[in-house]
Amino acid sequence: MAVEKVLITGMGVVSAAGMNVAETLAGFSSGTRNISQTTPSLSPLDYPVFHVSAPLGDPGRFSSRTVHLTFHALDEALADAGLSQDLSGLRVGVCMGTTVASQLNDMDFYTAYRKTGQPPMEPVTGFLKSNLAEAVAFRVKANGPCVTVVNACSSSADAIGVALGWIRNGQCDLVIAGGGDELSRIPICGFSSLSVFSHEPCRPYDRDRQGLNLGEGAGIVILEPESAARRRGSRASLFVGGYDAACDAHHLTAPRPDGSGLEAAIRGSLAEAGIQTQEVGFVNAHGTATRDNDKVEGGVLARVFGTGIKVLSTKGFTGHTLGAAGALEAAFTALALREGWIPASAGFENQDEEIPIGAVRERTTVSARYAVSTSLAFGGNNASLVIGREP
Amino acid sequence: MNIAGMGLVSARGRGVAALEQALEQGWVPPGEVEVKGLASGRLPVYAVSAETLSDKVVLAKARRADRFTRMAVLAASDALQDSGLGASVDKSRLGIIVATALGPHATTFSFLDGILDFGDAAVSPTAFSHSVHNAAASYIAMTLEARGPTLTVTHFHFAFHQALEIARSWLDQGRCDAVLVGTVDELGSVLHHVCGRMTKSAADGRITPFAFSATPETVPGEGRAFFLMTRDPDGAAYGCIKPVGGAVPDGGASLQLLDADGLAKDERAYRAAVIPGMPVAGYAPLFGGLLTGSAFEVAVAALMLKKQRRYACPVRDNPHSISLLSEPLTAPLSAVVCIKLDCSGRAASILLGRSAS
Amino acid sequence: MQDKEQQLSEIRAKLKELLVSNLNIEGVTPDQIKDDDALFGEGLGLDSLDAVEIVVILQRHFGVEVKDMEKGREIFRSVNTLANYVYETKQGQK
User: Fold this and answer.
1) What CATH homologous superfamily does A6-378 map to?
2) What is the ipTM, given to two decimal places?
């Protein structure tokens, strides 16, 4: 039995790279990096961050910024797919990735708890209403499976993988998949303590990279089985061809040096898509710009695809958006296939002798029909998505 | 998909034998903790004892792990051990799915302590890295050397149900040969306080699942329940789980378990959800109320199918005169349905069958 | 000089206790750690996450910062090298 194609019928993105798809592509094309510094209201630590500074749309009853960012991208994705905000007539699944928004980590609440033992309960009740997938399902009146993936930095790539499974096993007519994360004092503190931050704009894959910058944003893809999408008149040509994930089973915070988990995930996703490595035109790498990530990932990409593979990391434009990263990068990958070009990998200048590949230094034409987006996470999970374009 | 093995950690101990013993023994009073900021100063809870978590062999790779993760590693490791498939499962095709409502919040608060006590520049990277929800899954993978996909999912009501369905899709799509799927949720000092403020504590320590009350009472609990799921018909020691439904089917079940644990604001909806003419049971009074408690109901159902024995309800208050399972019964049992409501209009059910699927 | 040796000895003892308790090193007591034992790899078996945790230990308990993790490699070799770094940095702060 032939496996039915799972089309990407709508996309929405918001990050420091742009408030929507059009702005993002313009920024990619010009190489604009909208980087700012942490402000005292965000964190007392001074680091570059990729902050979304423009106002967001109406969040309804939700107070969480992560939900606001996600709704902003959701609205664009729904419009792009030609869908209304009320999907109650369809079997709609919602799978969202996040990190910060899943934690009850409100500083005011906890400070009051420590000081007085009588903290206000509003942060808790607000938290209990803000499960990201539940919030999205509430907004569009979705009635199908609904869950939030909390797989650290691969969360929303895995969310797209889960969504793919729901469609393939016939559970859903349509799935809203993606993720969001806001800039927050907690991960700024945490990543700082892990000594993985760069004090300058990040330089993925560069010889002189110093570490990552955090960013915020959200990415949403609307996935539908091809037959159903065509029936309602969709002309979408992009699709998710395959997904796989594999765990390093090595260390909580460090990648397995041989990269075998990532390699298994990439090869698995290619097999699921039914394609060969030479059909892949480029890889949108996880490329956080930490010493370890880029070294391990670059080694694997060279091993799987050869040293000629075109590689970029869009984190030079967005920073590391954690739970949003996988979905944003999947969307950017799809857009690049549609537009026929990838941007210069921002921040990359000199190839590292320890990495057999470099990133692209200029806007580059791509004509391939397939591309891969990789995600590596805290905890050792590796995820790979194959995105395709119909001829 | 089939249940090849189970591992549990709860206030009643560790492992399937401890579960069986608890079911035979019935209700026992909860413990009590001192709680900051509550008028009573105390709260009854079903907490996992430190002794239950002292296993230096299984936890050899978990020296830094917090309580949340230690419980998860023990339960997951026990599920694999219980299946007897430990040696034959291809570890590169063993997946892990962890479902949690609240994640490792005690470590999150300990990280916030670091910020408040020492400042943003001197916080513990160990606390930070263990405060992410997927730390437990990572340790399970390291301990069992499982190299398949690992996924941690969160939802405040149906996390376990969603995790089970994802496990099924992984097995159906050939992504994995076996999947360890389970739940983890813990108590901690801040959550004690939150429970004390946001739920009604059962003064006599008894959760009453069949009161269907507009103002239900609870005793917070914690624990882990893991299941090794497989497509292998030989790996059906505890029978099978049929596809999870949103609506409540009877599916040929002859017993229904209600996951009414007193955590919802209003449990009257359970009255209408009871399938007429089918005996009812519920075991939340044994383990306490927890948002991912459905996994414990499923573990009880699975054990009943394996042992062909129905365990009496631990608390049998029955103001609505429904058909309660009030005495233990050893008799053929082919299917059990577990029903969970969020009491805001959504329902989920898990149907377990005796034979392999 | 007596003073310096005395101070170094105290720093080493305190470091050993902090390492065992803060890094949850199991089955080892502070006095079992020798001054020149390798902390990482084959020695005590510490890893990269322990390394950044040691940075916090030095900050919180000795008021000493490690800005450059690359330079940290040499400092973190043993209890001896750590104690020397703490002592010298403290001297420099006076």
Assistant:
1) Thiolase/Chalcone synthase (3.40.47.10)
2) 0.97
